[in-house]
Amino acid sequence: QVQLVESGGGLVQAGGSLRLSCAASGRTFSSYTMAWFRQTPGKEREFVAAITYIGGATYAADSVKGRFTISRDNAKNTLYLQMNSVKPEDTAVYYCAAYQRPSLRVDTTPRGYDYWGQGSQVTVSS
């Protein structure tokens, strides 16, 4: 199992930048596919970006491509989300998530992930 704790959320002005971190417990962090999701009240949890456990291939939702970058530091057991050129519509609670199983394609649906952090609020002011 792995436990996930997000940090780095807060209030940022439109056009600004923010970096989220997700610290993972355990010694097998490098074997997990990791992702960021976000959720606003009344809406379903939305895929933001993912990174594979091998090779670090990354995937991002069209809404954040070119603005957000997912990365991981396996030596520090930490996942990151660099958010640049943020927009008011990026306002949400951001969650990191993980699963540990071989797959041909990275899962972009919430139900594909077995472990979740508690969430970190990001608010973008206009």
Structure report:
- The protein has 126 residues and is an all-beta fold.
- 0% of the residues lie in helices and 47% in strands.
- It is built from no helices and 11 strands.
Which features does this protein show?
mainly beta; 126 residues; four-stranded antiparallel β-sheet
Task: Please render the helix and strand layout as text.
Elements: E1 4-7, E2 10-13, E3 18-24, E4 33-39, E5 46-51, E6 58-60, E7 68-73, E8 78-83, E9 92-99, E10 115-116, E11 120-125
Bin the helical content. under 10%
Low-confidence stretches: none
- Which structural category fits the helices and strands? mainly beta
* Total number of helices: 0
Query: How many strand units?
Result: 11
Q: What overall form do the CA principal axes indicate? A: globular
N to C succession of SSEs: EEEEEEEEEEE
Overall pLDDT confidence: 94
- Percent in strands: over 45%
Profile the largest sheet: 7 strands, mixed
